[in-house]
Specification:
The chain contains 35 helices and 25 strands. The strands form 6 sheets. Strands 1, 4, 7, 8, 11, 12, 13, 14, 18 and 19 form a 10-stranded mixed beta sheet that branches. A 6-stranded parallel beta sheet has the order 22-21-20-23-24-25, with helices on both faces. The chain folds into 2 domains: 374 residues, Glycogen Phosphorylase B (Rossmann fold); 253 residues, 3-Layer(aba) Sandwich (Rossmann fold). Strand 20, helix 24 and strand 21 form a beta-alpha-beta unit. Helix 1 crosses helix 2, helix 22 packs antiparallel against helix 23 and helix 24 packs across helix 31. The chain is α/β, with parallel strands linked by helices and 814 residues long. Its cofactor is pyridoxal 5'-phosphate. This is Alpha-1,4 glucan phosphorylase. It catalyses: [(1->4)-alpha-D-glucosyl](n) + phosphate = [(1->4)-alpha-D-glucosyl](n-1) + alpha-D-glucose 1-phosphate.
């Protein structure tokens, strides 16, 4: 691709030197790496700012419909390389940095990950912003400018320790404060209703607290376009100045108390909510960001059109999971209280503006808020929710002919809780799942009654990933092979062009080169791990990788049980046939999730024992990668050979890590869950290692009555593995709690995620994978087919689906 404006090394050098002098008062020879990084960021920011102004003018002139993507998470990773890549200036920028006496690779590495997310949800949002911009869709993302993103993970004595992740030190180079666009968000107090002399209804607040929402905009460059969108991150400040009289009396903490109470809203991503204060803060975060966002969108719309009657024709608000649900009653509040519309007209506008993406079928993850908390913290919003809920309940009672069990299941306010997912389905004009299986479960199970009521609302948009970042940018050697085989870089904007690789599936030269690329990527990753941790990876073994959030349903524990099985057989049988493996784990456990943290401890206990045992040398190795994050994933994906996607069928909505592995030529060992189902459809049985119960079989087994203890008693292998868990490993730590959880349950059903039921099938799938790996030509052929058929999982395809089927906005023709 030719860059839109070709910046030369000389031009960029001059711009960087100018930034160093004007912004930091430094000449090049005085500049540190941090100065240099910020100067480069500011140069790219200037280029994007010029394009952003042009984009805004175009949108205004054409009266285009705008997409507003609301998500409490945006896991952006690093931006310097990404923006340079999308702007087409990686080469001249690298040359300019090197010419000024700095190491470009080191400089790119100094940037902290913008850790404004927790996992797949936030990474997806970041990929979608890239695709929306690349496809010239007028769009904005909205979230909170968390000072501390997801924590930095440190492993101390095998256990996770959470450290603050203050990414803003260098990361704020990308943020443009827009203080003149500050919004005010109100919490607490009492609501008073008044009627003026014209009989017009007014709502006024007595007491309560205001918090200022200050926008900090991060510009998003598209690939091959001068279109630039924005991620708007809201920072929280108090409108009340510091009370100097308290200071003069020595009451220092009291003097800044009001400020601290406001600023804590933007302090940390997802405070623990297993106590009232944490719940209150999380609800504050959600309302703070949607209120500021709704006010901002409305304000700009009113300036342009002078009325909100056409609001739904000019805007679509897509809410990513239930966290932004309060935008529904907040938009109603603005239309009713500030614009003076009647309920029916306001409701028409809102219900034609907001769409909802569901990301989970797990009941415990569908947000519910205690009504007492909502009514105290957000009294006017509570009144509006009650009205929405009452009208909805009347409709349900009529539709279900008085069947109160169905009414109860689908109600918004019931049993002292406000149910956010039900509010979304009630209000939104579209409800979509994120894989074919997931969307099917929403229709047939989770929202079955509501699907029968409004089937036209329900859609599927299978997730996708930014293939430019997750293939071309992070795996340049594979990118070069694809270009050579497909005749250019066409696939970067037309990901289905990857299909052209299929014609080379029996080409010995291409397969050999693919094998060589994977080997080089493995060596490169091994060198990185050695530098970071001193651990030497066996690059001749299969790199078998499971990286994702640590959660019981994702079944890292099943992987661990299998490794224990392998270890025991290596120890007990010197002739045990087994293809050597390096098992790589990366995962963060939520700070309050005790079982997940215990599983991390277990992985590290097992790793220490296995890696120290001479019997395992060059055969079996287990490594837990500390502080898994986007920038680490970019190094790991190109080196991975076997991708573990082993969640209990029917639990994973989609997954996106599975797509990144596939695109980089790793083969998948997995259940038919989430997007694995669609991967299997394009790959066929022979190009993926499937195992385990299917979603309907999971339901049937549960219905019959699942007894994990029987599996334990009838399988010598499983019994030996679980007994080892109870005994523990060389560090003397026993994992009896985990054994008991699997066999007898702990406050829930035993082995809730069916690890023991799927164990034998999983073990057999691993054996098949090991056999195929021994035939490297066959392995490379399957690897090539995985890459060739991965184009359907590009985020560009997902965004075209949203644009055409839900948002009704045009996309760039290619």
């Amino acid at each position: 691709m030719e860059p839109l404006h070709t910046y030369t090394k000389t031009e960029l050098t001059d711009l960087i030197v100018g930034k160093l002098r004007r912004n930091f008062g430094r000449d090049v020879d005085e500049a540190t790496g941090a100065h240099m990084f910020k100067a480069c960021a500011l140069v790219l920011r200037d280029i994007m700012s010029a394009h952003e102004l042009e984009t805004e003018d175009r949108v205004k002139d054409t009266h285009a419909r705008q997409v507003h993507y609301l998500s409490l998470e945006f896991l952006m990773g690093r931006s310097l390389m990404k923006n340079a890549y999308n702007l087409g200036v990686v080469e001249p920028l690298t040359e300019a940095i090197e010419g000024l006496g700095f190491n470009a690779a080191d400089l790119f590495e100094t940037e902290p990950d913008a850790g404004l997310g927790n996992g797949g949800l936030g990474r997806l949002a970041a990929c979608y912003l890239d695709s929306m911009t690349t496809l010239d869709i007028p769009a904005r993302g909205y979230s909170i400018c968390y000072e501390l993103g997801i924590f930095k993970q440190k492993i101390v004595d095998g256990q996770q320790v959470e450290l603050a992740d203050n990414w803003l030190g260098l990361g704020d180079a990308w943020l443009i404060p827009k203080v003149d666009e500050t919004e005010t968000v109100h919490f607490g107090g009492k609501v008073k209703e008044q009627w003026d002399e014209n009989g017009r209804h007014r709502v006024v607040y007595e007491g309560g607290t205001d918090v200022l929402a200050i926008p900090k905009d991060m510009e998003i460059a598209g690939y091959g376009t001068d279109h630039v969108n924005v991620l708007r991150l809201w920072d929280a400040k108090s409108p009340v100045p510091v009370d100097m009289s308290l200071y003069s009396r020595g009451e220092y903490l009291k003097a800044v108390e009001q400020q601290a109470m406001a600023e804590v809203i933007a302090k940390v991503l997802y405070p623990d909510d297993n106590h009232y204060e944490g719940k209150s803060l999380r609800l504050k975060q959600q309302y703070f960001f949607v209120s500021a966002t709704a006010q901002s969108i409305v304000r700009k719309h009113r300036v342009q059109y002078g009325t909100l009657r056409n609001f739904h024709q000019k805007h679509v608000i897509q809410i990513n999971d239930t966290h932004p649900t309060l935008v529904i009653p907040e938009l109603m509040r603005i239309l009713l209280d500030e614009e003076g519309y009647g309920w029916d007209e306001a409701w028409h506008i809102v219900t034609h503006t907001v769409a909802y993406t569901n990301h989970t079928v797990m009941i415990e993850a569908l947000e519910r808020w205690p009504q007492e908390l909502v009514s105290t913290l957000l009294p006017r919003i509570w009144e509006i929710i009650l009205e929405i809920s009452g009208r909805w309940q009347n409709r349900l009672t009529e539709a279900f002919h008085g069947d109160m069990s169905k009414v109860e299941h689908n109600a918004i306010v019931w049993g002292g809780d406000v149910r956010m997912a039900n509010m979304c389905v009630c209000t939104c004009f579209a409800v979509n799942g994120v894989s074919a299986l997931h969307s099917d479960i929403l229709k047939k199970d989770l929202f079955r009654d509501l699907y029968q009521l409004t089937p036209e609302k329900f859609q599927n948009v299978t997730n996708g990933i930014d293939h430019r970042r997750w293939l071309s940018e992070c795996n340049p050697k594979l990118d070069a092979l694809i270009r050579d085989c497909t005749g250019g870089d066409d696939y970067l904007l037309r990901p289905d062009a990857l299909k052209k690789l299929e014609q080379f599936q029996d080409d010995a030269g291409v397969l050999s080169r693919l094998q060589q690329i994977k080997a080089e990527n493995k060596r490169s990753f091994a060198a990185y791990v050695a530098r970071e941790s001193g651990i030497l990876l066996n690059t001749d073994a299969i790199f078998d990788v499971q990286v994702k959030r640590l959660h019981e349903y994702k079944r890292q524990l099943l992987n661990v049980l299998h490794i224990i099985y392998l270890y025991q057989h290596i120890k007990n049988d010197p002739h045990f046939q087994f293809t050597p493996r390096v098992f790589l784990f990366g995962a963060k456990a939520a700070p309050g999730y005790a079982v997940a943290k215990q599983i991390i401890h277990l992985i590290n206990s097992l790793a220490a024992t296995v890696n120290a045992d001479p019997a395992c040398k060059d055969r079996l190795q287990v490594v837990f990668l500390e502080n898994y994050r986007v920038s680490l994933a970019e190094k790991l994906m190109p080196a991975s050979e076997l991708s573990e996607q082993i969640s209990t069928a029917g639990k994973e909505a989609s997954g996106t890590g599975n797509m990144k592995f596939m695109m980089n030529g790793a083969l998948t060992i997995g259940t038919l869950d989430g997007a694995n189902v669609e991967m299997h459809e394009v790959l066929g049985d022979e190009n993926i290692f499937l195992f385990g119960l299917k979603a309907h079989e999971v339901q049937e087994l549960r219905h019959r009555g699942y007894k994990p203890y029987e599996y334990y008693m009838h399988s010598g292998d499983l019994k030996a593995v679980l007994d080892q868990l109870t005994r523990g490993f060389d560090d003397g730590v026993s994992y009896t709690d985990i054994t008991n959880r699997l066999l007898f349950g702990a406050g829930g059903s035993a082995d809730e995620y069916l690890l023991l039921a799927d164990f034998e099938s999983y073990r057999a799938a691993h054996q098949r994978a090991g056999q195929v790996y021994l035939d490297q030509r066959q392995w490379n052929r399957v690897s090539l087919l995985n890459i060739a058929r991965s184009g359907i999982f590009a985020a560009d395809r997902s965004i075209r689906d949203y644009a055409g089927n839900i948002w009704k906005v045009p996309t760039k023709e290619l």
